[in-house]
Please model this.
Amino acid sequence: RQHAGPSLLLLRDQKRQPEVYSVFPGIWLGDSPGGRMEYRESQQQGRQANTNGSAIEGDVHSRLIRLGYPQLKRIQMEGLVWPEGYFVHHPKDAFQDMFGTPWVVDFYIWHPVKHPDGLVIESKSQEKKGSVDAKLVPAALSLLKLNIPSILLIAGDGFQKKYVNWCYEQQTEKFTVMNWNAFSSAVNRGLI
Model:
């Protein structure tokens, strides 16, 4: 059967496989006679996390446009002159993560005065506790491995403090961690 509404994962007991049902939110599921019944709005949370991440990227994108950066489709080769600088959203085939596999970062910015070595911005957003916590450490390690100026932008209050604190402790001259307020302030002061 197909119903409109979030998908729920029902775990009846340890012997049976989980069953995924689609039901309307707010329906009382009752107790399970065969054991404990739990549910989780797995797809709904995943969609919300993607929406929040896209919203943060959209905000960064619009701020870069307002700062006068033109958007290009790919990172330009050295020797080309762009007096006003430029940015690329999701540059492909330009970077590798901490494992050496291709990595598509959120933004790459180049400016002849502010960012002559380039600047990478990777954003992570989390409003509620969830799996993105586990993505903070690999993102930070991958940005550190790039060895070019980079910002890990952390937005939302859903991150576990231990992961956020660990990221702040890793800061170097080339790697900076910012929350949304610090990033907005840096943009408003013309530092980005």
About this structure: The first strand starts at residue 7 and ends at 10. Residues 1-52 have pLDDT under 50 and may be disordered.
